[in-house]
Write a structure and sequence with these properties.
Layout lengths: L5 E2 L8 E7 L5 E6 L4 E6 L9 E6 L9 E11 L2 E9 L8 E7 L10 E5 L6 E9 L2 E11 L3 E12 L2 E10 L12 E11 L2 E8 L8 E8 L10 E3 L14 E10 L6 E8 L10 E9 L5 E2 L10 E2 L5
Parallel strand pairs: 12-14
Antiparallel strand pairs: 1-22, 2-3, 3-4, 4-5, 6-7, 7-8, 8-9, 10-11, 11-12, 12-13, 14-15, 15-16, 16-17, 18-19, 19-20, 20-21
């Protein structure tokens, strides 16, 4: 039956760094940067994230090393438990940023207690932690600060002994060396997101500064049988795979996650954007749109849709 229901972007106002996980219980779990706390939203639909069941699941003790600037939380289901990875610091600058881990053993992540598992001992200050599960192994990816040679962040990978323990070396996979990755005053590769499909593993990342209108998405591609710890396994796209649309009035498109429609028939990108060049970062809002696939098996994210466009709701809503 044809779907006559539509929505318009943005779907959640003032929500930066959106993360959406579609779980086998039929719900979507949504998180975004709230700075002083972690809030988890449960929703039966993608378009209903703003109206979902919300709960503050973590408020850090005041004055601690990890009590300020809680950024980019992600919820993952690993080894039969829930884990949240988020960035925090002591209120200072980049050098004090670390990625922290929380664990919850309940079936429903809005129930029970979240247990502090620690801050991950990355060799460089880090943010935007995420997890890749490949051939039964866990890998941790994050953005680490440094000079590449310009000051900013690059994306590293490490093996994991379990969801809260890193092991072995940390390998740099992509650094901001292209001009479009260095807009806004810093050279940035951040926000790694993984997608395993069509015999490939895709690493979609955000480049340039989040306050720049040229914040955009880049992508690395790897054959699924290759070793993700070997940088040469990954091929980097020379150009952005998703960027601003001046015509549609959508700028600073980045820090995405990737999910599916409720019936699993469609692929959707979730991202934040600004409504105008130079707009305050507090106006970053969460948007969603369907994406398709190219004949070579790689994703085609298209261009960001305008706020005035009526978009068919995800299949199965």
């Amino acid at each position: 039956m044809a779907n006559h229901f539509t929505f318009r972007n943005p779907i959640v106002a003032n929500a930066a760094d959106p993360w959406v996980l579609r779980h086998t219980d039929g719900n979507y779990y949504f998180m975004s940067t709230q700075f002083g706390r972690l809030e988890l939203t449960q929703s039966a639909t993608l378009t209903g994230l703003a109206r979902g069941r919300k709960k503050t699941i973590w408020s850090p003790p005041p004055g601690g090393r990890y009590s300020h600037n809680l950024w980019a939380p992600e919820i993952h289901r690993l080894d039969g438990k829930w884990y949240i990875y988020y960035t925090a610091n002591d209120g200072g600058g980049d050098e004090s940023r670390r990625i922290c881990v929380l664990e919850n053993g309940e079936t429903n992540p809005l129930e029970g207690d979240w247990v502090w598992k620690g801050a991950l001992p990355t060799p460089v200050p880090g943010l935007d932690g995420t997890v890749l599960t490949l051939q039964g192994e866990l890998y941790f990816l994050y953005a680490g600060y440094g000079h590449f040679p310009d000051y900013g962040s690059a994306i590293y990978i490490s093996r994991m002994a379990n969801p809260w323990t890193l092991e072995g070396e940390h390998v740099l996979l992509t650094a901001p060396i292209l001009e479009w990755e260095k807009q806004g005053g810093m050279a940035i590769n951040e926000g790694p997101v993984l997608l395993h499909r069509n015999g490939f593993v895709f690493l979609v990342y955000s480049a340039s500064t989040t306050w720049s209108e040229d914040y955009a998405l880049g992508m690395l591609t790897m054959d699924e049988g290759d070793d993700p710890m070997v940088p040469s396994s990954w091929e980097k796209s020379a150009h952005p795979v998703f960027r601003k649309s001046v015509e549609n009035g959508v700028y600073a498109t980045g820090h995405n996650s990737l999910t599916e429609s409720p019936d699993g028939e469609e692929d959707w990108i979730v991202y934040h954007a600004l409504p105008a060049p130079g707009a305050d970062v507090g106006l970053r809002s969460t948007r969603i749109q369907k994406f398709t696939w190219k004949p070579d098996g790689t994703p085609d994210f298209g261009i960001p849709l305008s706020d005035t466009q009526d978009i068919p709701v995800p299949s199965g809503e």
